[in-house]
Amino acid sequence: MSKPLADYVKLPQLEEYKEWFKDFADLYREDGILQVTWKTLDGPMQHSGMSHRAIGQLVRVLSLDFKNEIIIFTHIGDSWMTESDPNGWETYSELPTQRFQHQYFDDTNLIKNMIFDLDVPTIGAIPGPGFHWDSAMLSDVTICSDDTWMEVPHAHGGLVPGDGMGLMAQHYFGTKRGNYYMMTARQWTAQQMLDWGMVSEVVPKDKVMERAWEIARLWKTMPYENRTIMSNLAKRPLKKLLVDDLKLHTVSEQYGSLLRIAAGEMGDTHAGQQDEKYISQTNDWRYCHDWMQQPPTRESWAGFRTKPFEWFKEVEAGKEVNPFDPNKKVSPYRPEKKD
């Protein structure tokens, strides 16, 4: 039998690229089902310029490995991302090139790679409340725990909500409802996400990953080719949405940030736009208080700039407990072996 002039290009295999991304994701594969668990080192994912870039990079690498037949995206522990690395945004301040690359390339790739690079079925598995829920909501099917709260938080911090979350709120909730939640930063619950079409199922706490694997194994009973083609139909509405609007949204957020930098209004909690280093304190507070689930008022809007920091002082003094303490020991989920 004649041999071809050149063989297939040798691309990295799981054992190699899981080492590349070990600081940001735990990768576990069984029977063609890949579980991607977002994290930073051994704890919850700390939102940073580095993690932001790694998400889009990893998705692109995953798309090159045909052994990844179905992909589950989740977060370590019992919540979604809540923390932010206070020192993880230094390169964002480097103008013009570094910030341009972060906001023009990374912000867009984090969203579009989920839809345009991944040709296989995907499941978003949300174990609890958190922000930057992009990868979970961009999956073909999304399930969440019954205690999940989420929002598009940008406006409270003085940012234009253009990183894709506002766009998805408009898409899933409808224009008027999506606009309202995008422009007021009001939180929504798991039941609302189900009722309004953002998630596929709401399951009891601690059952999210078990259910995600059950769905993945169900899909595995279908022919590989058919379930893969099926996934393209699932992604098609989002492909059209992103082609029309994603870059406009991301560039709008970038432009708004640059205006605040030029005006000297980016910094502490009193600035026109809050610095990213304050995200952890405000997030931990808003996921254990229902302040932001209520109809927004000028008082509640102003309270977002003060109450989280007052509460955090109480936590540091031992008078309050932070259930989202990033130092709490967590480990990636592992499914029970099936015969």
Automatic annotation (TrEMBL):
| GO MF annotations, alphabetized | catalytic activity
- Which Pfam families does the record associate with it? ECH_1 (PF00378)
Mention one GO biological process in which this protein takes part, according to its record.
Answer: fatty acid beta-oxidation
Report the protein name in the record: Enoyl-CoA hydratase/carnithine racemase
